[in-house]
Specification:
Layout (H helix, E strand, L loop, with lengths): L1 H8 L9 H29 L10 H12 L6 H17 L2 H10 L4
């Protein structure tokens, strides 16, 4: 994408990025992304495939924090979207099927 952006802008921008900016970039990369990947792969190794469900939950937490901290409104669309995310996680992890079988008195 960089070549496309540079071509659209008429060439690479002439900016001077200082040491503080590079250190901030490295810190975000190593601490934010790097530790998240390590934690995610640890979860997969120790919990199994169900660990992938954690990737669907942060949007719902973000909505809740936005409402609590930033006083963002929560409308019908937001609630419906959060419900779809939670239902999707339940379907993916097999909890919906287990609940349906339990309600029908069937075993796997």
């Amino acid at each position: 994408m960089w070549p496309v952006a540079f071509a659209a802008a008429g060439g690479a921008p002439d900016i001077d990025v200082g040491l503080k900016a590079w250190l901030a970039w490295l810190t975000l990369g190593v601490l934010g992304t790097g530790l998240a990947y390590i934690g995610y792969y640890w979860l997969i190794a120790n919990v199994g495939v169900l660990a992938s469900a954690v990737t669907y939950i942060p949007p719902v937490i973000g909505l809740a924090l936005g409402a609590l901290v930033l006083k963002e409104p929560i409308g019908v669309n937001v609630v419906a979207g959060a419900a779809i995310i939670i239902l999707g996680v339940a379907v993916m992890t097999g909890r919906v099927g287990s609940l349906a079988r339990a309600m029908l008195g069937q075993e796997r």
